[in-house]
Amino acid sequence: MTSYPFGADQRLLCAKDFSGVFDHTLFKVHQPSFLILATAKPVAATARIGLVVAKKKVRRAHERNRVKRISRESFRLHQRDLAGLDIVVLPKIGIEKISNADLHQQLQLAWQKATSLVYSILSNCNQSFAWTTLSLHSYLFSVCDRSDSTSWCNKRCVL
Predict the structure, then answer these.
(1) How many folded domains does the chain comprise?
(2) Does 155 reside within a domain?
(3) 146 with 24: CB under 8 angstroms?
(4) What is the DSSP letter of 87?
(5) What sign does the CA torsion over 22, 138, 80, 48 have?
(6) Residue 152 in domain
(7) 154 lies in some domain
(8) CB under 8 Å to 75, separation ≥6 — which residues?
(9) Is residue 41 part of a domain?
């Protein structure tokens, strides 16, 4: 039986983790109810998620909690496909009107788009070898090299 843990190592915990994603976003995935920002991590590790559900966007506490609960559960089930990424989920105004099933569907589509974006970045590098998990993480982090801002800006993707 496959295990899908969701411990502290799968979460963005401190402001430094969140600012790393906000400052160095590799790609964005837009959905009708939320925006996902993602960046690569320097080492081959599990994916991590951070949720920013502002009171300004979702007024009622029970709705904010529902959005966070569903987002965490969807991420937990898809975290193996997103390995090597730090992800921040930002809900948009009106998300409280979306049903749980629709929210799950939008998140599943967003994880698929994020995975396809990662592999599209890899296919643009014209490398002919098979990507292992370690080489995938190494390449993504090299794309995110903050010292060379011109190549960094040219590699950003929006879907």
Answers:
(1) 1
(2) no
(3) yes
(4) E
(5) negative
(6) no
(7) no
(8) 6, 10, 47, 49, 82, 87, 89, 107, 111
(9) yes
Secondary structure class of 29 (helix, strand, coil): strand
Q: In what order do the strands lie in the sheet with 48-51?
A: 48-51, 85-91, 34-40, 27-30, 157-158
Q: What is the pLDDT of residues 137-154, one digit of tens each?
A: 555 555 555 444 334 334
Dump pLDDT digits (tens) for 54-72: 999 999 999 999 999 999 9
d(CA 104, CA 153): 32
Q: 48-51 and 157-158: which strand pairing?
A: unpaired
Q: Which of 96, 117, 150 is nearest to 39 (CA)?
A: 117
Domain housing 89:
8-147
Whichever domain contains 43, its CATH number is 3.30.230.10
pTM: 0.77
